[in-house]
Write a structure and sequence with these properties.
single chain, alpha/beta, Dihydrodipicolinate Reductase, domain 2, 2 domains, 6-stranded parallel β-sheet, 17 strands, 31% helix, binds nicotinamide-adenine-dinucleotide
Length: 392
Amino acid sequence: MAKTLNVSILGYGMMGTVRAVAYEAVARYYPSCPIKPVLYGAYTYTDGEFAAANEVGWKASKDLDAVIKDPECDYVDVCLPNAMHHDAVMKAIEAGKHVFCEKPLAVSVDEAREMMNAVEAKPNLLNAVNFIYRRCPSNVLARQLVKANRFGKLIEARSFYNQSWGGPDTPYSWRFSKTGGTLGDLGSHALDMLYYVTGMRPIELCAMQATHIKERKVPSFVGSDLEARMKRGAGSETEDVKMQAVETDDATRIMYTLPGGAIGSLECTRNAWGTENTHGYELYFENGAIAWNYDDVNYLSIYDAKNPERGWSRVLSNRGDIGSYASFADGHMFGYRDFTVNACYENMLKIAGAEEVAPIATFRDAYDVERTIEAVRNSWENRCWVKLADFT
Ligand SMILES: NC(=O)c1ccc[n+]([C@@H]2O[C@H](COP(=O)([O-])OP(=O)(O)OC[C@H]3O[C@@H](n4cnc5c(N)ncnc54)[C@H](O)[C@@H]3O)[C@@H](O)[C@H]2O)c1
């Protein structure tokens, strides 16, 4: 029989909810998983979240420290706003808990470094960050092709992560505070994906940032960011509507150089009407190209320049021979929830000492993303190119 492990989820907003479903599904999707995660505790912030967590039988509490330090808890899953990650993670490491943390790991490179050093000093603990798109077989395949040098040297790269929910009617939430901007929110995923698939980090970069909407209505309710987004236009209805200044970027653009001479660009925004979760990349090599877009998540597009017919191949990646994820049957498509189950499953494998299906993003990987974010901000503030090596 599989060993069990008590999981406590910190934050029961959008990601906390997705994650709760995923842990319950691990043993069903993956009956041979050596460890069975059991939902044990939850840190909840609002009365509604507290009631909902109690309803499903969790040990819910509004006391974050008590949830983390509970001796029955083996593993914490940090689904809190970005600014709360550092404190929660440091306390969890101190208390000897395995840690799975949402991205971005931290809100500064100093915080990320401290978290990485603390957890690496306790090698028996899991340290994983939810760069979820690694768990999608299309990206597992892309990484395999690059590693196998299938199309030769990389010469150009383009990454994008565009959404549209950040229009002027969306009320203020933590995502518009200094620690919640688009670069850390969406850009961090696009950076991790670039690093994961190519294995490369930029040498130099130059960036631009913009805040299109300078202030937003303060919502008339207390709730999660998801609720704020669902209630677009639902700020205070009174005459004296309170406004709050936006402290962060709505959009970021980055240009960079990579080892070996490749050049690339990355864009992320919450203000691209017509996109919802348009995340992807195009990689151009000497002898071909690879492209992925979340809008067509189960396919990887491959172009072989040596093929006399030319033309793109749209390759179905939801197959048992790519990444050995539970797909039940080839072509029975995966979505975001499945990737989340895969992530939770692979965390269990890693804790059990087994090899994960594809490399989990560690705190060290997330630290690399965080120092890139710091470099991007510095480049825009000083209107200059910067070297990534100067940000450690
Ligand atoms: N990996 C992904 O694909 C992905 C997707 C979305 C969000 N995220 C990350 O997940 C984390 C949570 O995001 P979310 O979308 O679930 O946010 P959310 O706002 O829906 O939920 C955040 C949780 O924290 C609580 N909270 C909010 N303000 C608080 C405060 N001041 N004090 C204490 N608790 C507070 C909320 O009530 C809720 O329980 C963030 O770090 C975000 O970047 C990751």
